[in-house]
Amino acid sequence: MNDASLQRLGVDKPSDALIDCAWLLADPGNAPAQPDVRLTLQAGRVQHIASVDAAPGARRKLVLPALANAHDHARTFRSATLGAFGQPLESWLPYLGVIPGADPYLCAATSFARTVRGGVSDAMVHYTRVQGVGTYLEEAKAVARAACDVGLRIGFAIAMRDRNGIAYCEDDAVLAALRPDIRREIAARLSVTPVSAQQQLAQVDAVARMVDESGYAAHVTVQYGPTGVQWCGTPLLEAIAAASADSGRPVHMHLLETQYQRQWADQVHPQGIVPFLDSIGLLSPRLTLAHCTWARPPELALLAERGVTIAVNTSSNLGLKSGIAPVAGMLAQGCRVAMGLDGMAFDEDDDALREMRLAYSLHRGWGFETTMTRGQLWSFAAVHGRRSVNGAAAAAQSGGGRIAAGAAADLLVLDWDAVDDDALLPGIDPMDLLLARANGAHVDQVFVGGRKIVEAGKIVGVDEAALRAELIAQVRSSLAAERDTAHWKAMIDALAQDLGPFYRTGRHLRCC
Ligand SMILES: [Zn+2]
Q1: How far is the CA of 72 from the centre of ligand 1 (A)?
Q2: pLDDT tens-digit profile of 95-147?
Q3: Which pTM does this prediction carry?
Q4: N or C end of the chain: which has fewer CB within 10 A?
């Protein structure tokens, strides 16, 4: 056993516990709330669920299954902080590299801390923003250690790409459309240097080996992370499809996030981009596709037939001006749909409870129509994402997303006195209050596999405030030392201005 594993033995163990709650929502949307319940946790699982007399004067708790975040990137700095507020995806992406790389452990740990305080036990990390401070393997190990220390489970999808670094066309073609004085530097910093599919696959294998050997496997599921069809050539996607079929490893990819990606897909794949992915063997129950905001009903039907999971990112799609995903249409076609936050929750705070409310408000149906039931909402917010993060077998084995004897003790404990602070009438369904007003500020405790990782709204495993202060100090000092940043930010601002007319006039369609 290595040092890291020995160190963690003390903190990474489930503790046996009794939780008395005023309300238990064991299977929200499917079963009614139960009053006055005692949960017994043992060896990481829920052992017993029994009635108990309410303790007079005790603060009331509501316990429900922890939520899952099926699409994210472990980015810790928020968009508006980077000067990217209001940019559509295409001009927003370059802003992610506007500040210098920082300590990957600090970045990941602070991001994970905010995620679990927002009510999430299982989160996807599509690792598209590499800090680049040490070797890739060292950085991956730092991310895995951060997940372990904070205590959540992550899917760790290694970003893979080999083309179109600046826009949805050859780099040379878009460079020619930019103002001349920024071309050289934009090319130098954003153009893609292709790395062979074999090398990219070998990197995924190396990270998976490191995760196993370092004892992180209970917290980290390594996945293939092709960034998107417009960023990955067909041989790379074919190689990933074959490797996934061979190894059983999950695949995580963006698809049809914006109207410009839709136009590109129709131009480059006139027979249909989804049938194309099917023809190369990429559509499988191991695949999660983020967004599908611009997918059409026949495409959704094929994704449903192949057992693909779709991760819908409601706030992100609003924040990056991408649109509103056809969630009702996805459900009507029988798709497995999961909630993602994509680092862009509505208040830039990774609040999964508010994200669930926003998605439900947009997709439940207008007037007397119901297009998303509460049961479907729950599967979306807490059940299906676990499969994207941990893989199908582990998700089925844990039984998470619902609280039952024998299921993994992945629990969210809310301060119910704070949520239900003006009770007047008997018989109001606690689920109504949950959907109407609960948010991250009400999260009192979070348990993952029986380990208490949030207590009184604070992270137990790391000193979040200290890590955040250290990270911000580190970045400010490298910004002060590196006078190039203001210049690079001005380049990106200029690029953003030039990409507007480029996409609006369809120039991304003329070079493919
Ligand atoms: Zn994303």
Answers
A1: 6
A2: 999 999 999 999 999 999 999 999 999 999 999 999 999 999 999 999 999 99
A3: 0.96
A4: N
